[in-house]
Design brief:
heterodimer; A: about 375 residues; mainly alpha; Four Helix Bundle (Hemerythrin (Met), subunit A); 2 domains; three-stranded mixed β-sheet; 9 strands; globular; B: about 120 residues; two-stranded antiparallel ribbon
Chain lengths: ~375, ~120
């Protein structure tokens, strides 16, 4: 391994696409190509294709419902994709681990001439990511604007002279914020003893702040790695700590997300001044299977039941699917960032980032800021509105 | 996050400045929504949407321009153009798909509807 060296590139490299030091410095400055990106992309494609083959949903005419199935016979494609993806990651890891920062190839074509080729590549990758999330947001906008809001639908049905007739299982849009920002106020015990702050909004709000702080800590890691006034030991320690904090915040984000989806939490007992209750979204029946969600327009706190005449049964699968697919895709990106961060923490504490070799943090930072940027849109669209 | 990121804004380190702006604006959007629900009916939903969109724009620009260094670096211009390139497709997608009616697909010919495999 060669960390921090600048002059070894004329002597210490192997002409291999797979292993360490395959950064070619002897052919007019042009680097060898790496197989890692194409392997990772191909592996991901196969994995996702296999995923759609293994997990399927079909409409059962006789039972009049959707059935969900796992086709284990198709799992080979999924495993093959995962294997190729892992091999690509391994190739990348071996090359990056030994990269000293002594040679950073530049793009030669217009309009990216003289810009680091890896920087151009990460921006190309982010462009494709923009398209992924844009398709999810256009789906959200389409359904959000196209379906009647369940609450409005119910309210219009009880107005005098209204012509709306509610049918059991009628499809409508019940936004995630109904459960999150309003704390499921229609549910028993849902009001917190925290005054005005709705319960279930807390994890999402903490997550938002966590991502912003993590965006800042990754910037600090880069600044510290470039700081020539620090000793090597001091720099390694500081960079490692900033990256560790970023990893911790990313872990916190995903933990809160899982709590919000599946676990929920309750602190104290009902009646305590500090009583804090946040049911999970699944406990609130906000799921992709919920074709017959019992909507309560007016909850009777004393009777612990819905006020008679204020109930309706709605199909809310579309709003739930849109929410889980969008926030889930974002969560997968956070998880990918966590894997990369775990590797970077290890590399940092072993002296892998120096003033001459800090751009990897910069490129990861671009990805991480993008993940933060997407959350800036997801949070108000799904959690607040 | 580039080589030339040592500028200041109003005398503060630009990254620290941006960080605190993001924190404050996030607090504003959370509190705005919390207050909206605690004072149900007193603040219109349009006002809330306006606040969320305005805050979202400020935060998005802050992250892209300063943290992602689309402002202030020699290569910022070309990278900003690169970042904005998909916007054309996004606009097409949002306008022609996002804002169509959900049932619009039902009026399409059978051969371009989901489930047509013959």
């Amino acid at each position: 391994m060669s960390y921090g060296g600048h002059d070894d590139h004329h002597h210490d490299h192997q002409h291999s696409h797979w292993g360490p030091h395959d950064w070619d410095h002897g052919h007019g400055g042009a680097p060898h190509n790496s197989w890692a990106p194409i392997m990772i992309a191909f592996g991901s494609s196969l994995f996702l294709l296999g995923f759609t083959k293994v997990f399927t949903q079909t409409w059962d005419d006789e039972a009049d419902l959707w059935t969900y199935a796992i086709h284990s016979s198709q799992i080979g494609l999924l495993i093959a994709g995962l294997a190729i993806f892992s091999a690509g990651i391994t190739v990348f890891w071996r090359q990056d681990w030994s990269h000293s920062g002594s040679f950073e190839p530049k793009a030669v074509g217009t309009p990216f001439r003289t810009i680091d080729i890896r920087k151009v590549a990460i921006w190309m990758f982010l462009m494709s990511e923009m398209m992924v999330f844009s398709s999810l947001f256009s789906t959200y906008i389409r359904y959000r604007t196209g379906f009647d809001n369940c609450v409005s639908l119910f309210e219009s049905s009880i107005e005098p002279g209204s012509t709306v007739v509610l049918e059991a299982g009628q499809q409508c849009w019940l936004p995630a914020s109904y459960f999150i920002a309003e704390g499921g106020y229609h549910q028993a015990n849902a009001h917190a003893a925290l005054g005005f702050m709705p319960d279930t909004l807390i994890p999402g709000a903490i997550n938002t702040f966590a991502l912003i702080v993590s965006s800042y800590t990754i910037v600090l890691a880069l600044k510290t790695a470039k700081d020539t006034t620090l000793s090597d030991a001091e720099r390694n320690s500081k960079v490692g700590k900033y990256l560790s904090i970023t990893l911790f915040l990313a872990t916190l984000f995903l933990t809160f997300k899982l709590i919000e989806w599946f676990v929920g939490f309750e602190i104290g007992d009902k009646g305590d001044w500090y009583h804090f209750y946040a049911p999970s979204l699944s406990a609130d029946h906000f799921t992709i299977h919920e074709s017959e969600y019992t909507y309560c327009h007016l909850y009777d706190e004393a009777a612990h039941a819905c006020t008679p005449g204020n109930e309706a049964i709605f199909d809310i699968r579309m709003s739930a699917s849109t929410f889980y697919v969008t926030t889930g895709t974002h969560g997968v990106h956070v998880f990918g960032g966590m894997v990369a961060l775990a590797y970077m923490v290890l590399k940092a504490f072993r002296g892998g980032y120096t003033p001459q070799n800090a751009v990897s943090i910069e490129y990861f930072g671009l990805y991480w800021h993008f993940v933060d940027l997407v959350w800036v849109l997801v949070f108000p669209a799904f959690y607040l509105y | 996050m580039g080589e030339h990121g040592h500028h200041t804004i109003l005398g503060f380190d630009r990254y620290a400045f941006n960080f605190w702006v993001l924190m404050i604006f996030t607090a504003i959007e959370v509190v705005a929504v919390a207050l909206t629900f605690s004072m149900k009916g007193t603040v219109s939903m349009n006002t809330v949407v306006f606040i969320l969109v305005a805050v979202g724009i400020v935060k998005g620009v802050g992250i892209a321009a300063i943290f992602m260094h689309l402002q202030g670096d020699p290569d910022s211009r070309v990278l900003t153009a690169t970042a904005l390139f998909p916007v054309f497709f996004i606009v097409v997608m949002v306008l022609f798909i996002g804002l169509t009616h959900p049932d619009a697909a039902d009026t399409l010919p059978a051969w371009c509807r989901p489930g047509y495999y013959n």
